[in-house]
Amino acid sequence: MKTYGLEFVDPETGQFLGVCVIDVTVEQAADELPSLPPQAMPGAEWLSAAVRRAWVVGANPGGQVRIGEVDPILAAQLPRNRLMLEPELAERGLI
Hints:
single chain; about 100 residues
């Protein structure tokens, strides 16, 4: 399993829309392989699965997304599968 942080912004205004933390299993990543183009970079299935999981759990507000793997020590302290907005991120000392 890998843990990803997804940061969402409005593509037109650049307005911050929130962050969510998503766990992705090997099986979920493997399920994404058939939908990827042949030229997809290695590991793209993990990123695709993270975005899909965010939609499934209702934590994806739309817009553009920046995604990255979260350090396991930090990940242990963060809630999963929900959108966190600026006040909560500030309260947690993340911004």
